[in-house]
Amino acid sequence: MADQVMTVRCVCGWETSGSEDDVVVATTEHGRAIHNMTPTRDEVLAMAVRPPDLADATPGAAAE
Ligand SMILES: [Zn+2]
């Protein structure tokens, strides 16, 4: 469970995805370098989007 992939999208359009630690590090660096702010881990995780279970695909594409 430690390597679950998540994605963070910044308000500027930049985004990153990877493990939780990777995303936290990348987003913290991005914030510091681009926005002159340093988000906390909690703030980064609040921005993160965890994809639902890949097996949970909705079969709703039948537009017949
Ligand atoms: Zn940004």
Plain-language structure description:
By secondary structure, the protein is of the alpha+beta class. It has a domain at 6-49. Helices cover 34% and strands 16% of the residues. It is built from 2 helices and 3 strands; from the N terminus they run ββααβ. The chain has helices spanning 20-34, 41-47, and strands spanning 6-9, 15-18, 48-49. The protein has a 3-stranded antiparallel beta sheet with strand order 2-1-3. A hairpin with a 5-residue loop joins strand 1 and strand 2 (15-18). The N and C termini lie far apart (39 Å). The mean pLDDT is 86. Bound molecules: zinc ion (ZN). Zinc ion (ZN) binds at residues 10, 12, 14, 30, 34-35.
Query: Can you summarize the main beta sheet?
Result: 3 strands, antiparallel
Low-confidence segments, given as residue ranges, are: none
Rounded to the nearest angstrom, the distance between the terminal CA atoms is: 39 Å
Estimated radius of gyration: 15 Å
Give me the count of strands. 3
Helix tally?
A: 2
> What ligands does this structure carry?
zinc ion
Structural class: alpha+beta
Give the strand line-up of the largest sheet: 2-1-3
Shape: elongated
The percent of residues in helical segments reads 25-40%
